[in-house]
Design goal:
2 domains; Growth Hormone, Chain: A; mainly alpha
Length: 401
């Protein structure tokens, strides 16, 4: 397979496939690990079940730090070198976790994985923007997101199969294979899309200036905070989902099936959102999706308290399906609202918003997960409290408009 010359474009389908593979690295690194958390903790000497959650949450710590770096880096040295750096760090973290002999080494590997995966995830969006704009860019991203949606549905099942047949280390073997395969494919087939005359030198001042501008614009600041709160509530679920479904409800190997069913709600929201934004304003969609999260949570919290934190599984699924649909609508629109006033610094603005909201979510989601007490009360309370706080922040922003 020969290398492409600079300036050439890949065929549409191949470009979408490579971009989707790179953007899916984070989701795969999270969801495929979920069935294996207990097995990893048992082998590496973890005493408290909640501690296993750090295998998930610390990946977001690395990703939060990485997001704010790769955008400006790709503007300075080009898209391909920045992606090479990200893949190199991700592969190093994968190897560290693959051969981990203690839990701290495992966590160090996961932080590196998150820091590395942020590169392909962030820079691949810039690759799309370099080559497409307007409706064509939207078409590319819709195809990419359709593939991306499949990962949370299928990845836990992949992790469960690998766990059953080869043990938890084989899951990292899959990460290693897929990352090397995607990196090789990308390096041979994807031309550089940012010419040298368009590159912007990397400076700390530029990043600090972007942070100051975002903090100074009420709409950008408000929706960055709300994105962090919403993502934090979801991360609380993600951290404790294996314990809730696999252990508390005794689903065992059926965990992947139920997790995948719930992920379908996100996929449906993502696909439907592209039509909804043509009919309603972003503010309208976000407001009513957030109200839905709050109302669903206050009703179900009352149900859960009556059942001592262990309501029937069917009622939990009946609560989570519409809840995740509403959160899927929020995920699709909060970033757009935060970015709306930042068109003049779109690249570094997106990286900064992503980093700040992820760091906020990491702190909140870790706290919710560590509060898990064998009941669903901490998770549902997290959804309720954070949705109410988000509505308050949105009301503050709306007052400005």
């Amino acid at each position: 397979m020969s290398s492409k010359r600079s300036g050439e474009h890949l065929k549409f389908a191949e470009f979408v496939a490579i971009t989707a593979m790179m953007m899916s690295l984070v989701a795969l690194s999270i969801d495929a690990m979920l069935p294996a958390l207990s097995a990893i903790g048992d082998e590496l000497g973890v005493r408290h079940e909640n501690t296993n959650q750090l295998i998930i949450s610390l990946l977001f710590l690395g990703m939060s730090a990485g997001q704010i770096i790769y955008g400006p880096l790709s503007d300075a040295v080009g898209r391909k070198p920045a992606i090479y750096v990200g893949f190199g760090i991700f592969i190093s973290g994968t190897l560290l976790s693959l051969f981990a002999t203690s839990f701290p080494i495992m966590l160090a590997g996961r932080i590196l994985q998150g820091f590395g995966a942020a590169g392909p995830r962030i820079v691949s969006i810039a690759l799309v923007r370099d080559q497409y704009e307007g409706p064509k860019m939207a078409r590319v991203m819709s195809f990419v997101m359709t593939i991306f949606i499949l990962i949370p549905i299928l990845a836990p099942a992949l992790g469960q199969v690998m766990l059953d047949f080869s043990g938890w280390r084989s899951i990292f073997g899959i990460f290693l294979f897929l990352s090397v395969f995607t990196l090789t494919w990308f390096s041979l087939r994807q031309p550089e899309t940012l010419s040298s005359e368009k590159r912007i030198p990397f400076t700390l001042r530029r990043t600090v200036s972007a942070v100051r501008e975002i903090v100074g614009i009420r709409q950008s600041l408000a929706y960055t905070i709300v994105a962090g709160l919403v993502f934090g509530s979801f991360l609380g679920y993600l951290n404790s989902s294996q314990q809730i479904l696999q252990i508390q409800y005794g689903l065992g190997e059926q965990f992947a099936l139920y997790f995948g069913i719930l992920a379908v709600a996100f996929g449906a929201a993502a696909l439907l959102n592209s039509n909804l934004v043509m009919l309603f304003s972003l503010h309208f969609l976000v407001r009513y999706a957030m109200l839905a999260v709050a109302v669903l949570s206050v009703v179900f919290l009352a149900v859960a308290i009556k059942q001592n934190g262990h309501p029937p599984l069917w009622s939990l699924m009946l609560y989570l399906m519409p809840l995740f649909f509403a959160i899927g609508i929020l995920f699709g629109n909060l970033n757009a609202l935060a970015m709306e006033p930042l068109g003049h610094i779109a690249g570094i603005g997106a990286a900064t918003i992503g980093s700040l909201s992820t760091f906020t979510a990491l702190s909140i989601g870790t706290l919710i997960g560590q509060c898990y007490d064998g009941t669903i009360l901490p998770m549902v309370t997290g959804f309720l409290v954070l949705s109410v706080l988000s509505l308050g922040v949105m009301r503050w922003e709306n007052r400005n408009r």
